Amino acid sequence: MDLRNLRYFLTVAEQGGFTAAAEQLHIAQPAVSMAIRKLEQQLDLPLFDRQGKQVRLTDEGEVLLRHARTILQAADDAEREMRELHTLERGEVRVGIPSMLGSYYFPPILMAFHHRYPGIRLEVVEAGTRKLQQMIHRGEIDMGVIVTDIPPEDLETQCFLHDQMMAILPADHPQAEADSMDYEAFFAEELVLFKEGYFHREVIDRISQEAGLPPRISFEANLIPLIKQIVSHGYGITTLLKMVVADDPSLVAIPFTQPVWLKLSLAWRKGHRLSRANQTFVDLVLEQAAPIERR
After folding, report:
1. Are residues 271 and 154 both part of a single domain?
2. How far is it, in rounded angstroms, from Cα 111 to Cα 167?
């Protein structure tokens, strides 16, 4: 099966039409149509129902689509690994990182990696852990940071950080000098939380459900500077890792009475051999992690 024709097929399926696929591939539309016809002739099966400019996958096309993604991803992986087999002067690392860690934990690591391996292209994608898992499976990124209290069965994981989630209060809050904060007191407050799909929001939603304490969400935002400003001005409280407010005198971090520990890991597709560049990035992350953080 010709990989080029298979790639054209995948693009038509994803773009929903031959013209849109041709534009995406930067080739003439007749070339796309010819490639699909050859593929259908080779398989002796119809892959698309053609209705004017719109096309729809047949049942046979749906089956091929699943295989096409796997085959093309494997081909791309093989090509990239062959390029990088003997040298780290070239290569690519595509990693997904949630904004909290991307802003306060990873910058020194990313800069150190670029300094050591300036020829390797480093692409960083910001998203919540749930979306990052989906992007890993689709092959859009090579690896991503996820919470692994319960490791996913379909991903390989390597823990690099074990840290405590803290209640974040303005410095003049009545409980700012308390040793800890219980769940009942926390959920009685107006809350400023990340949107769904981010790891610290998922943890709070789980605690709320288990404790039977509905959250009083006053603000939802994914911008950490905005969240910190809202909390420091007394419009609510939130939860973050302590590192996020370590240098901010207007905010205090208090542990929960029942400590909330997060186990954060780099994750990639199970059974997928990391390229040399990606493995080198994982090794650097683990090298920079303190021993206590990897327990």
Report:
1. yes
2. 30
Q: Are residues 74 and 18 in the same domain?
A: yes
- Residue 212: domain span: 162-262
135, 183, 173: which is closest to 155 by C-alpha? 135
Based on the domain organization, do 208 and 255 belong to the same domain? yes
Return the structure tokens found at 285.
């992350």
Residue 52's domain is classified under what CATH number? 1.10.10.10
Question: Could you tell me which of 286, 285, 265, 273 has the C-alpha nearest to residue 129?
Answer: 265
Gap between the Cα atoms of 3 and 273, Å rounded:
21
Give the model confidence (pLDDT) of 256-266 as tens digits: 999 999 899 99
In total, how many domains does the chain have? 3
d(CA 52, CA 165): 55
- Strands 91-97 and 143-147, sheet pairing: parallel
Phi/psi at 124 (5° precision): -115, 125
Residue 231 φ then ψ, to 5°: -70, -45
pTM above 0.70, yes or no: no
Mapping DSSP to helix (H, G, I), strand (E, B) and coil, where does residue 109 land?
helix
